[in-house]
Write the structure tokens for this entry.
Amino acid sequence: MAGQGDCCVKVAVRIRPQLSKEKIEGCHICTSVTPGEPQVLLGKDKAFTYDFVFDLDTWQEQIYTSCVSRLIEGCFQGYNATVLAYGQTGAGKTYTMGTGFDTAMAEEEQGIIPRAIAHLFGGIAERKRQAQEQGVPGPEFKVSAQFLELYNEEILDLFDSTRDPDARHRRSNIKIHEDANGGIYTTGVTSRLISSQEELVQCLRQGALSRTTASTQMNVQSSRSHAIFTIHLCQMRLCTQPELVNEAVPGLPEGTAPTREYETLTAKFHFVDLAGSERLKRTGATGERAKEGISINCGLLALGNVISALGDQSKKVVHVPYRDSKLTRLLQDSLGGNSQTIMIACVSPSDRDFMETLNTLKYANRARNIKNKLVVNQDKTSQQISALRAEIARLQMELMEYKAGKRVTGEDGSEGYSDLFRENAMLQKENGALRLRVKAMQEAIDAINSRVTHLMSQEANLLLAKAGDGNEAIGTLIHSYIREIEELRTKLLESEAMNESLRRSLSRASARGPYSLGASPMAFGGSPASSMEDASEVIRRAKQDLERLKKKEVRQRRKSPEKEAFKKRAKLQQENSEETDENDDNEAEEEEEDQDESGCEEEEGREDEDEDSGSEESLVGSDSDPMCKESSVSSWHWLSPPPILPSTQMSPYPLPQARSVLGAVS
């Protein structure tokens, strides 16, 4: 649904299927549609692009959903709409619009007007149901209809039951007028008040049967007049008030809710079924039929001149000839006025109608350049209420800015923004820039850490490759150890920085003296003793976190490849010494060392469980000391090249022997 402003006329092209008569006479199809594009190709080299294109096998429902459905929704918002069917005689205009009623017509063959009526009353029922569910007063709707026929430049009322059908040539009493806003209305026309969908369909059927038709060589039931079926919709609904207005309305006692305000919206929907353009040579019309054809072509010519004047992009044409025909005068709102308009050009696919199809496509192509000006149709009271409501919202926003200190008034009465607001805006901008810098620096740090880990892993893998061992599992293990140590080192540095900031805060608090130490906690409802206890608790938890980190780094060093190599070398030395001197005492010592080692492992397992249980605690209150820094530095000693061992000595030893070697070394 388009809002207020300029809106171009939409153009759709519908190609009807070939008739049985055309197939018998051997007529070929001269039109084609580009797949996936709204483009029609006539013959071999004439291409036209429109907003919508419907090929031979298009159903009525698809045309309505694509073109007309959104216009009905716009009527509920107060916008006018027009659907215009144009084309040569026998091209399917009446069938598309749905004014040619047939008792044997199936539901899926219903035209645009019956479907629009069902959509209109369905929307009315839906809006009433939604208002009832929300507990607010429902909107009130009033629907009325008119049905006009333009026959030989005379306007006839198809709803007038007193009119003599044989007196078509008498002068009509219906007059066309223009209001102060440029809107077109008629006087002397019967307007029927409608209360249900069935009643409106019955009125449409009655008017369609009263329409003038005749038979020609090109169409057995040809419309000899232009028909305009108009639906007027008037609704009174509850105004949607802005939040600022709902918060407080000055001048009302406390606890009194503001009165509900209603607005009145009107909309009119024109369904125009134009008579088909025809050539007397092809229709074979004589006498009365020939006069009707001439009158039809004159009205369509005036309509074409109006379309050309409105669609002239050079803006050389200043005057638009609306008064050249009553048809263009009635459609003044629809073409270049306050209306959403869609033109449906109906064409024949047969090659014998090539020239008529070409003229219709050119006619419709010019209409795409017309721009209408959409305005919501509100009564003057509703417009004034909306303007006052917008003014109140603006003033309330300005008052809030004065209260917040955003706006100030100078000594000379000039208004402007306060220095505090400007400084705040500048600081917010600077804060945003710093946030971006921090984010960029963090990304750079992550990239550098990843690069360092990769290089160290490559260096370790290179040393292993020189030793003649191509075990990929060792390289993967080294890479994971390096990455984990990098993460631990980063966390340790963050903990040191946070600890330093906490120490500075504590030193500032202690430097304030006894008065400030006693007054500050009392201001928050506490005591000096509780403040010191909280600080001591934070430092104690920080020291515990640092102890866990140091223990974890020690275990990482024990599991590192350098430690494994050291164990293997110590094991080899021990085996050499055992070959020369082996006795039962050494075996007993090894068993005791095994037991001690297993006890150490159990103790380390308990430490791991303690660390896992406390891993989610925050490192905000962590402390730093020289021992922590020494542990962080010593964690890098294992990166020195490990001793190169023969490939035969790289096989893992049994666990008891490794434990005995570790005990001997320690």
